[in-house]
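Regression test case RT-17, inverse folding.

Input:
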């Protein structure tokens, strides 16, 4: 790469947004050539190594299905500036908040699977269809993101919350139909 030489940044955020990123290092002519050649480079690389690409795509899909916590969220950063924004750290990082969020996300997802398995015989056809659509959506999102971009927690996190939400709605329906518990003393 004529912009970075043999050692380009490995993280997308650094490559795109840092002061030493491609936007600040490349000339306008270089940026136009990068944009024009981007899809050609990707297609040729995939066709040159199809077996490796299929293996990597399958691995990325599997990884994307299991990575959906807030791990790659950057708290305290903001795009600053109007015409040419820069990603800037404006407050301290919060690793504790990320850890709590990680526990909540994965635990709620696991509990929703357990709940749906437990109440599977009480599901109505429409609820089964809703769960199936969510599962298909999770698989499709993982495939699209795993094949077309790098594996990143936030990609699956955009849709993974749908399964706990559907599970909660189904549980509320079941509880409302069971009626209030008899609390009169015997």
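Golden output:
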């Amino acid at each position: 790469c004529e912009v970075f030489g043999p050692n380009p940044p490995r993280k997308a955020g650094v490559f795109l947004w840092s002061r030493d990123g491609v936007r600040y290092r490349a000339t306008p002519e270089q940026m136009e050539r990068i944009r024009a050649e981007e899809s050609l480079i990707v297609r040729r690389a995939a066709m040159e190594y199809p077996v490796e690409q299929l293996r990597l795509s399958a691995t990325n899909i599997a990884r994307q299905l299991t990575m959906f916590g807030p791990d790659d969220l950057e708290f305290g950063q903001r795009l600053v500036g109007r015409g040419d924004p820069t990603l800037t750290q404006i407050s301290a990082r919060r690793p504790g908040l990320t850890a709590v969020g990680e526990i909540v996300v994965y635990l709620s997802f696991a509990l929703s699977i357990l709940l749906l398995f437990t109440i599977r015989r009480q599901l109505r056809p429409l609820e089964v269809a809703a769960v199936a659509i969510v599962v298909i959506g999770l698989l499709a999102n993982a495939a699209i993101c795993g094949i077309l971009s790098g594996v990143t927690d936030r990609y699956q996190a955009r849709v993974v919350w749908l399964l706990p939400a559907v599970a909660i709605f189904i549980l509320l329906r079941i509880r409302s139909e069971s009626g209030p518990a008899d609390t009169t003393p015997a």
